[in-house]
Design goal:
single chain, mainly alpha, 3 helical TM bundles of succinate and fumarate reductases, globular, binds protoporphyrin IX containing FE
C-alpha cells in the first residue's frame, strides 16, 4: 500500500490523478457546504442556520470530517504545486516551437492564480469561522457582521469569483485526467462542469451580495 502510494506520488499521471480525485471530493464538500449555508436565508432571525451549525458542531464525527477535509486540501494543493513545477521544468527543456494554444480558456490559463486566491480566501474564512469559533455565539450573526462590511463582502466576492473561474476548468480537466474522454460524452461533461461552476459561484455569491445590500435583515 505504502509503496503503491509512493510510486503514485512520484509519477506524473499519479500526481494528476490524485489532484483530480481530491478536487472532485472538494467539489462534493462545496455542494454540502452551500446547501447547509442556504438555511441562512430560511428566516430573518438566523435561527434555522444557527440550529444547523449547532447540529454540525455537536456531531462527534466532526473532528474526523475536518481531518479528512484538511487532508483533501493539503493533497490537492501539494499535487498542484508539484505538477506546476514539473510543467515549468518540462517547458524549459522544450525546443522553441510556438506552442499551440488550442482549447485553452481563461479558466485553464489561470488555474495557479485562482488557486492562490482561493487559498487566501480560505485562510481568511477559516480564521473568522473556525479559529475564532469560541468567541462566536451565533454563526448567523457572525456572517452578517462580516459580510455587512465593504472589505469583508469585497474579499468574499473576489474569493468566490476566483473559485468560479477555477471550477469552470476543474471538472472537465479532472474527467480528462481520469481517462473519461470520449467524443460523445466529453461535450456533455464540459457542460456539466460549467453548470457546477455556475451553481456554486452564484450560490456562494448570494451571501456577500444579499447581506451587504441588506437583503437579509
Ligand atoms: C460565501 C458564503 C459562505 C459562507 C456564508 C460560509 C460560512 C461558513 C461558516 C459559518 C462556517 C463554520 C460553520 C460550519 O462549519 O458550517 C464555515 C466553515 C467552512 N467553510 Fe465556509 N462559507 C462560505 C463559503 C465557503 C467557500 C467558498 C469555501 C471553500 C472555498 C468554504 C470553506 C469552508 C471550510 C473548509 C470550512 C470549515 C469546515 C469545518 O471545519 O467543518 N466556505 N463556512
Amino acid at each position: 500500500m505504502l509503496s503503491w502510494l509512493i510510486r503514485t506520488v512520484q509519477s506524473s499521471i499519479g500526481k494528476k490523478a490524485l489532484m483530480s480525485l481530491t478536487g472532485l471530493a472538494l467539489i462534493g464538500f462545496l455542494f454540502v457546504h452551500l446547501a447547509g449555508n442556504l438555511t441562512y436565508f430560511a428566516d430573518s432571525s438566523g435561527e434555522t442556520f444557527d440550529h444547523y451549525a449547532e447540529t454540525i458542531e455537536s456531531n462527534p464525527l466532526l473532528p474526523l470530517a475536518e481531518g479528512g477535509l484538511i487532508v483533501l486540501f493539503l493533497v490537492h494543493i501539494g499535487m498542484a504545486f508539484r505538477v506546476t513545477l514539473q510543467n515549468k521544468a518540462a517547458r524549459k527543456h522544450r525546443y522553441a516551437v510556438a506552442a499551440s494554444h488550442g482549447g485553452r480558456t481563461a479558466g485553464s490559463r489561470t488555474m495557479v492564480l485562482t488557486g492562490i486566491l482561493i487559498l487566501a480566501f480560505l485562510i481568511l474564512h477559516l480564521i473568522h469561522f473556525r479559529l475564532q469559533k469560541d468567541s462566536i455565539d451565533s454563526f448567523a450573526a457572525a456572517i452578517k457582521m462580516e459580510l455587512s462590511k465593504p472589505l469583508g463582502a469585497g474579499a468574499y466576492v473576489i474569493g468566490i469569483l476566483a473559485l468560479g473561474i477555477h471550477l469552470s476548468h476543474a471538472f472537465k480537466s479532472a474527467m480528462q485526467t481520469l481517462g473519461l474522454n470520449h467524443p460523445k460524452y466529453t461535450p456533455i461533461l464540459e457542460k456539466v462542469g460549467l453548470l457546477i461552476a455556475v451553481v456554486l459561484t452564484l450560490g456562494f455569491l448570494s451571501f456577500p451580495i444579499l447581506v451587504f445590500m441588506g437583503g437579509k435583515a
